[in-house]
Design brief:
single chain; Rossmann fold; 8-stranded mixed sheet; about 40% helix; globular
Amino acid sequence: MPTPKRSLDLDLSRPSSGRIYDYWLGGTNNYAVDREFAEKQLALAPEIREAVRENRAFLRRAVRHAAEEGIRQFVDIGSGLPTQGSVHETADEVAPGESRVVYVDNEPVAHAHSQILLEDTADPERHRALAGDFFDGPELWERIVGEGIDPRRPICLLTVALLHLLPSEREPERTLEFYRERLAPGSLLVLSHACVDTGDERAKEAFEEISDNYRSRTAVQGSNGLRDRAAIAEFFDDFDLLDPGLVWLPQWRPDDTFVGDPARTRAVAGVARKPGR
């Protein structure tokens, strides 16, 4: 029997990362407080809107690749608000009726809309939405397994545009290590992360100001998660990075729709496989 859903209070006095992201994507599941904050961040870094769209496109390409490799279990932590091309939709395009997806988010609107979205699918029992937090670790993993994810079989674990939002003081690398250790050999870790090239002081200052604004206006406390490419690569630990490695978002197995300098997305992405299969 699935674990009872954890209730979360909806706070409309603060902007929400999930609703802000939805606004940047052109969605409608956001409020005035989110739109006001989002526009201020766009004034600092106009490339944000393009970056979030490229991030979503990367997620779809990575999920499609995992499904084509035969993986049928997907866990998306920090899934945000549902939008076109969600994980379960993309996986089912490759293997209709075979995939199982668990979405996890600690934002009430994101969680509620995920539940509504999944109720409208042809087979709602295959996909689940959990109210939970990345840092819940063992408790969250137990609930994920309780929703029908089999840890003995390969899983595609997604932490997309998540880790740079988490306070460094809480050491997200340790929590991610916990999840990596529980994945079966052959599993994939899909990750994207904000990244600023060394020497790009304008972008670095903009990211730091955005992070300061975000922490002051939301419930997240702690230092920002700005990391260079080498530090981001450490999240994969001993997993084997798939070609083309850790690259700018549009460079990961591109579909040739992106035009221009991929570095302007200010985010890198990679997919890595757990060895031993």
